[in-house]
Design a protein that fits this description.
By secondary structure, the chain is an alpha+beta fold. It is 37% helix and 14% strand. The longest helix is centred in the first third of the chain and has 13 residues, at 34-46.
């Protein structure tokens, strides 16, 4: 991911990084957030701040790995909330997840930000991430 980020650094144009949050129950089970570890490393290498407290997972969801595409779409719907809009308003946000299969989780995170009036679409090229130009990547556009 770092090599992809470095190649795309000239077009990345993000102001901050959000890892996809885990529900507190799952965080306690695992003891760490894999997306958070990736986001922290990427942020350090790219010189971008990483915020762990702006995007929250407010609902428990089943692990996506056991679900088909249709089930994934319903599983994470409404699972996220923005905690502090003042930090993200008019900002370009890179959302990092540890696994990208269908992009459902990243899309739901982006939709959550957009519903709060926090932006307009822009795609990203990093595997496992979605860049938001003041909000949301365009539906159907590839990450790569």
């Amino acid at each position: 991911m770092e090599q992809a980020a470095r190649r795309e650094a000239s077009t990345l144009s993000a102001d901050m990084i959000f890892p996809v949050p885990l529900h507190i129950k799952r965080l306690r089970q695992r003891g760490f957030n894999q997306a958070g570890l990736l986001a922290r490393t990427l942020g350090r290498r790219l010189g971008l701040p990483v915020y762990f407290d702006c995007l929250l997972r407010t609902c428990w969801t089943e692990p996506q790995t056991r679900l088909n595409r249709e089930q994934r779409l319903h599983n994470v719907k409404g699972a996220f909330e923005v905690a502090d809009e003042s930090k993200v308003r008019k900002r370009r946000i890179l959302i990092v997840d540890d696994v990208h299969t269908t992009g459902t989780t990243l899309n739901e995170c982006a939709k959550t930000l957009k519903r709060r009036g926090l932006g307009s679409p822009r795609p990203d090229r990093l595997p496992g991430s979605a860049r938001l130009e003041n909000g949301l990547r365009r539906r159907g556009e590839p990450f790569l």
